[in-house]
Give the backbone structure.
Amino acid sequence: MTFRTKLLFISSFTVAGAVALVTGAVSVSARRAFERVDAQRRAALLDQFRSELDARDHEVSQQMQRAAESTAVQQMIAGSAAYDAAQAEAEAQGLDFLDVMQPDHTIISSAHWPARFGYKNDWEIALEDWDSKEAFFTRIPLPEGTAIALIAIRQTSGAFVAGGRRLTPEFFKSLGRAPGMRALLWLGPGLAIDAQGPIADAHKLDAVTARGSGSVQWTSSRSSAEAFASLPLRRNGRVIGALLAGTSLAEQFGLERAILWIGVWVGSGGIVIGVLLGWWTTERITRPVEKLAEGARTVASGDLSARVAVASNDEIGELAEAFNRMTAQLIEQRDRTIQAERVAAWRELARRLAHELKNPLFPLQITVENLQRARERPEFDEVFRESTSTLLAELSNLKTIIGRFSDFAKMPPPQFETIDVNEIVRGVMKLYDTRLRDIEPSIELADGKLVAAVDADQLRRALGNLVLNAMDAMPSGGMLRVATERREDSVRVSISDSGQGLTEEECARLFTPYYTTKQHGTGLGLAIVQSVVSDHHGKISVMSEPGKGATFVIDLPVHQGAAA
């Protein structure tokens, strides 16, 4: 992933993350604010509900007290009134229900159900409530079903008078509730009533009344949810019902949804702005950095003339100027280094040549002086023969030294042709077979032909130098192993010896011209080998440890065109 892409991602996600955090914080704050306001509204509605019920309780108690003391009720108890006389008294007192009963709760007269004359009263009234003076809620059976009523019970002349008013939706409508709020009366599991009448799925309110507060989702839509606060109605230590104040959560969910969509749109816009800002920023930053990287790659490839255009006065511009100064200094340093290397090379060449020529010149000088002294002696002929032999040997040595220097100075370009490398290895080993003496050779060649594009003469000469180098490393004998291997796009030739080995420092300097670890040698053999391998676009390396011998590895490309 490029720096530009990373910067675009970072800027976009930063903006999106900030918008998401703000949206979440606003949503949470709005929800908490709604919850606080709704809690206050529900508490106010419950207080109003409680006050209205208290007023209704007082009203029903007074109505029942007047009914119990009325002449009509006394006549019913005495048996001097008709069985349906309770209807007129109920209407007179403004009651919806009125039962006049004997002490055993047998109905004498019933206002709402006259046919119940002579039956037992079946209202849901607890035993301790028959002696109560306060009004309370109960369920009253009717021919068409069950009604919820606020009733009161009075005793008069040894009889019971029970009656009250039906709890109708109009009662809840009279509470003057605010929009989005409603009051409910829960009278037991699965039974609740509000301004619209009995509530379907009232069982969902059971858990709310048990906890004292909570929310109910009436349908699969979240907008149908309501939050409730509950005020239990207790009588004689038991809960006989609960007042519920509910507020719709549709407005809250709508606001949260609106905040969410605003966050989505703002976040999307922020991402777009972040991408544009990131693109502009990356154009200002990454484009100059890419040019610097391209210039660095050019310098790394060897072209020190690379320059980077300075397009700004900021830190990037300073970096470009520093890069240009660096390349200029590198060119100056390279020129100085090349000049110094040339001088050092000529000095080293002169020193080596003087050293190598000095060794055979000293025997030549001694031999000539011996000839001069022996010129008048009788044994001159014998001295002459010995001296001429010495002169010829030293002159041959001089010729060899001059030839090596000449070969290294003017290596001819390789003439590539497709040749079996295994055959070249066999030829080199056969050439030196008679000189191995105490050295045991081991030849491990790849199966079949190992074909590559090489200069046969130069490769033969390079392998010969490596074999001679291995033989010189084992003056007391040892193991010489030569192996070839077929690789993916190259061939490998390795030559190993079991000699004294080399140190790490010696391995690092081994292919340096004129460097040698031998007492006699020009230090050009391995340098020539490296030159041949380099001209073949190959690689040569050495692996060695003191006392564990050395292994030279040559990798040559199969096709010279691809390698070049």
